[in-house]
Structure formats: C-alpha cells, structure tokens
Specification:
Blueprint lengths: L9 H18 L3 E2 L6 E2 L4 E2 L4 E2 L4 E2 L4 E2 L4 E2 L4 E2 L4 E2 L4 E13 L4 E13 L4 E2 L4 E3 L9 E3 L4 E2 L4 E3 L2 E3 L4 E2 L4 E2 L8 E2 L3
Parallel strand pairs: 1-4, 2-5, 3-6, 4-7, 5-8, 6-9, 7-10, 8-10, 9-10, 10-11, 11-14, 12-15, 13-16, 14-17, 15-18, 16-19, 18-20
C-alpha cells in the first residue's frame, strides 16, 4: 500500500502504480514497447497478444482485443472497444469507438462516437464530426467499408457494408452498402 503525504509525492507514487500496472499486463502477454511512455488506466482491459507502442494512452472503460496494435502516440479514451487485430496507429484518437476485427485506422485520424464493423479501413486524416454544439451523434460504418484519406464523416451518419468513400470527401448523407460516396 502506498500513501501520499503531500501533492509533491503524488508523481512518484503515480509512476510506481503505472509501472506496476504495465508489468502486470506484460506478465499476461501484452507487448509493451516503451513502458516509460505508455499510460494505461486501471479501468482498461488489454487482451494477451496486444501490442502497445510508444506514446500510447489508454483511458476510461476501454477494451483492447487480442493481437490489436495501438500506437505509436495513440490516445484511446473511454468507451472504446477494439476487436481482434485492430490497428489504431500513429496519432490516432478514439473516443466511444467500437471497431470490429481487423479494422485499420493506421494514422492521423479521429473517430468519436463511431461503430465500425470488421475489415474496415480509415485513411489518413479521417475525422468523424460527432458534436453539433448541442449533442453528440453516432457514425455507423458497415463491414468492409473503405474510408479514403482526408474524409469528414458528419454524424449522424451510416456508411453501408462494402461502401467506398472517395478521398477528400465531406459526407453528410448516408451511403448505402456497396456504393461510392464522394463529395467535392
């Protein structure tokens, strides 16, 4: 048991607790590439075989599936569930995102209040616009959808299974399954 007598002692104790948490995860089979730069809150569950790359932050009630890869420099906030073999790569931020098996968000993206099926791909610069200054809205993406680079998905929105969104699009209307969504 640790005790903190003053605010000045808090960073030292917090560091010890974080190191213990990461060591416990490593003992279950989680690969942690740089423990000095990863942060995992106690409410987070990480499955064996997952890989946490440098700069990874996992917060809130979050679940990381087997063989998922998070980072480098990814922020996964509360309410996220990453399925088996999901990739949340460099400078990706997720909040209330549920990503199905093998879904890829390789870099530079923000997905908030988003549900995506299995085998989806989100290109560089994809962002879900989920807040309209009054309330949050959800984006739902079907299995196998491909979202091109620099795309804005304006929620509430549904993208059907197998749909293809052209790079640089701002999508404001639902895209049916197997359809091409493009806006310029």
């Amino acid at each position: 048991m640790y005790s903190v007598a003053s605010p000045a002692e808090l960073p030292e104790i917090a560091g010890l607790l974080q190191r213990n948490r990461l060591l416990a995860l490593a003992r279950t089979g989680v690969e942690i590439y740089d423990a000095s730069s990863c942060y995992v809150e106690p409410s987070v569950r990480v499955a064996p075989g997952a890989r946490l790359l440098p700069g990874t932050m996992l917060r809130g009630k979050t679940v990381i599936g087997e063989e998922a890869v998070v980072g480098p420099y990814a922020s996964v906030r509360g309410g996220c569930e990453l399925g088996r073999s999901v990739r949340a790569g460099s400078f990706v931020e997720l909040k209330n995102a549920r990503l199905g098996e093998n879904t890829q968000v390789p870099h530079l993206a923000y997905l908030g209040d988003t549900e995506a099926g299995a085998n989806c791909n989100f290109g560089c610069g994809v962002a879900t616009a989920n807040f309209d200054r009054v309330q949050k809205h959800e984006t739902v993406v079907g299995e196998g959808a491909f979202i091109g680079c620099n795309t804005a998905l304006i929620a509430p929105l549904q993208v059907g299974s197998g749909a293809y969104i052209g790079a640089g699009s701002t999508i404001t209307e639902d895209v049916p399954a197997q359809a091409l969504g493009i806006a310029r």
